[in-house]
Amino acid sequence: MRTSSNPAFRNLPGGQGGGYATFDRQGGMMGGGAAYADARASQVGYGRAGAGERPLTVDDVVTKTAITAGVALVAGILTAVSGAYALALPAFIVGFVVSLIVIFKQSSNRFLVLTYSAAMGVALGGIAGLINNAYPGIAFQALVGTAGVFVGMLVVYKTGAVRVTPKFTKWLMGAMVGVVVLMLANLVGNLFGFDLGLRGGNPTLSIIFSLVVIGVAAFSLLLDFDMADQAIRAGAPAKFAWYIAFGLMTTLVWLYIEILRLLSYLRQD
Where do transmembrane segments lie in this chain (predicted)? Predict the structure, then answer.
């Protein structure tokens, strides 16, 4: 089983078969290998749907992801329109704490997932609102950009234009580690009065670095789609869709912030 760059998807049930429609670019119904899926799902702590439980389908994932994204969008718009920008920091803290609970407990609790979505919506709404005051229209542009990247990467995954292979996964994980190391180095450098220029110090370098980060986040969506597909094929319970939706939201939040940052660089005089 491949691992994902998204911490929420590191231990999803995976396997072959399961007999349900999935995100798989091969299309159609997947059959055979149910015994393997049973064994693989039990290894990671999420068994297949039991008696009286409906197995996970792609419709469950799409619906729950749409709900979580919708909650974040509404919360963000209300925060930005009301001018309650001061709520951004406490909301981000709440969202971060809830995300840790969901990830470490691997919880499919819809209340926790929707709480995370609402909190991050408020946080992003506050941040975007402040930046939008300086650069009118930038918040909506970042939203459109994020939606475009999401749809584009879903098409890329379904068509098989980029295959999610173990080699691809290792490459992406390495790229993510490199990005995080550079971010931390830039942060530490700023604390000691040495700016690496990755976050505004050097306009050209900042734009290039932001594009790289957006690329890594975008390709991370491919791994997220693949891990969700494995969960569906493994026959996980339908309620697990909430956990998958949470994992996708974490990547979308990261993507939106980085696109917003890039647009702000491009709008600077």
Answer: 84-104, 111-132, 138-159, 171-193, 205-228, 240-257
